Amino acid sequence: MGSRARKLLSERRLLKVNVEDTGVELTVSYGGKYERAYLLLPGRFCSCASFYFEVFSKRAKEKCTHLEALELSKGELPQIKVDWEEFKNRIFPLIFKGFLT
Ligand SMILES: [Zn+2]
C-alpha cells in the first residue's frame, strides 16, 4: 500500500460526511489544498481524475490513492456532521471542482 494513501489518512483528508436530516452519509476525500473534494463509493468508484484516467479508462491501476486509503482505513474514518446549508454551500462546490480537475 502506498505511502500517499497513508498520508491521506494521517492528514485526516478522508472523511465520512453525515448530512443531517437527509439520512445521507458520504465518503469524501479532500485533495490538494482543500480546494476540491472527491466523492467515493467504497471499493468501486472515486470522482478524482486519476480514477477516471488510470483505473476506469486505461485499467492501468486497480485503485486511486483515495480508494487505497479507504481500504487501508478499514472504514474507520473521522466523521463530520453538516447541515444541508453547509453541505450545499461548502462541500458541494468542492466536489464539483473535483469532478472538473
Ligand atoms: Zn480518487
Which features does this protein show?
single chain; 101 residues; alpha+beta; five-stranded mixed beta sheet; 43% helix; binds zinc ion
Characterise this structure.
It is a single chain. With 101 residues, this protein is of the alpha+beta class. 43% of the residues lie in helices and 26% in strands. A 5-stranded mixed β-sheet has the order 4-3-2-1-5. The chain has one domain. It contains 4 helices and 5 strands, in the order αββββααβα. 28% of the residues are buried. Helix 1 (3-10) packs across helix 3. Bound molecules: zinc ion (ZN).
Low-confidence stretches at least 5 residues in length (pLDDT < 50)? none
How far apart the termini lie comes to: 25 Å
- Arrangement of strands in the largest sheet: 4-3-2-1-5
Average pLDDT reading: 94
Q: Describe the oligomeric state of these chains in a short phrase.
A: single chain
Radius of gyration: 13 Å
Bound molecules: zinc ion
Write the H/E string, N to C.
HEEEEHHEH
What can be said about the biggest beta sheet? 5 strands, mixed
* Beta-strand proportion: 25-35%
Give the overall shape: globular
| Total discrete domains | 1
Number of strands: 5
List the total number of helices: 4
Secondary structural class: alpha+beta
Question: How much helix is in the residues?
Answer: 40-55%
